[in-house]
């Protein structure tokens, strides 16, 4: 495959990646409001007066015995999971988004307390009082949706622009380099959103910390992108080395 064919393949790959990222980002952006409302409903939910016989919006603490726990480390499509036993012996499977602080310490026979809301175990508490949300837990989802939306859209828009740009300036190497600059700065801006989300989650900061931290980083990276794009268009990034070695005169 020649240079032109490789360029076409790279363009198609970037277009597909940008399209998928933008769709995912828009979907997650629309989910932020619903996630916020669900978390607020959970935090305002009253305690059940008695054992709920059907899925209910009140909170009920249920005693469980750990039958088994699997961290699923090394598996691509498997998160931590555990099988809990009710006092009647009926098994109840739960999954988790992370391994810590509870599921990583679970051993068969351990006693835990599960918080049930709308018919699902949304939180598990161990004998030491440590708590961990399950995959069904509403706490933390608004932050995840917001951070994911920022990361996907911040990557998708520059990647799309940088992929389409060379199509309108074929054969112009300076424009091609400028487009490459735009694409890779999009990767950096999206990566900054992911790192910000990780820092917010690790330190249990409020949701507003995500745009407060990511915003200045994104502006700095955008300024760098503009500077490099202008340099590419001026030819400052051109390789000035001769394409063929000089011929020595005898």
UniProtKB/TrEMBL annotation:
It comes from Streptomyces shaanxiensis. Keywords: Membrane, Transmembrane, Transmembrane helix. This is DUF3592 domain-containing protein. The chain crosses the membrane at residues 12-30, 146-169, 181-200, 212-233.
């Amino acid at each position: 495959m020649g240079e032109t064919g490789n360029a076409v393949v790279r363009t198609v790959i970037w277009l597909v990646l940008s399209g998928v990222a933008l769709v995912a980002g828009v979907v997650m952006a629309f989910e932020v409001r619903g996630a916020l409302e669900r978390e607020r409903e959970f935090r305002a939910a009253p305690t059940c007066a008695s054992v709920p016989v059907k899925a209910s919006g009140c909170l009920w603490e249920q005693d469980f015995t750990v039958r088994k726990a699997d961290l699923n480390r090394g598996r691509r499509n498997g998160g931590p999971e555990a099988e809990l036993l009710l006092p009647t012996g009926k098994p109840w499977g739960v999954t988790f988004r992370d391994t810590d602080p509870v599921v990583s310490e679970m051993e068969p026979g351990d006693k835990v307390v599960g918080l049930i809301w709308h018919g699902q175990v949304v939180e598990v508490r161990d004998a030491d009082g440590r708590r961990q949300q399950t995959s069904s837990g509403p706490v933390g989802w608004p932050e995840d949706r917001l951070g994911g939306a920022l990361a996907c859209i911040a990557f998708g828009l520059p990647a799309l622009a940088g992929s389409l740009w060379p199509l309108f300036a074929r054969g112009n190497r300076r424009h091609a380099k400028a487009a490459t600059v735009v694409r890779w700065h999009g990767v950096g801006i999206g990566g900054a959103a992911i790192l910000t989300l990780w820092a917010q989650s690790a330190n249990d900061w409020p949701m507003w910390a995500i745009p407060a931290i990511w915003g200045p980083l994104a502006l700095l990276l955008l300024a760098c992108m503009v500077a490099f794009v202008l340099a590419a268009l001026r030819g400052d990034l051109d390789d000035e080395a001769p394409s063929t070695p000089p011929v020595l005169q005898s």
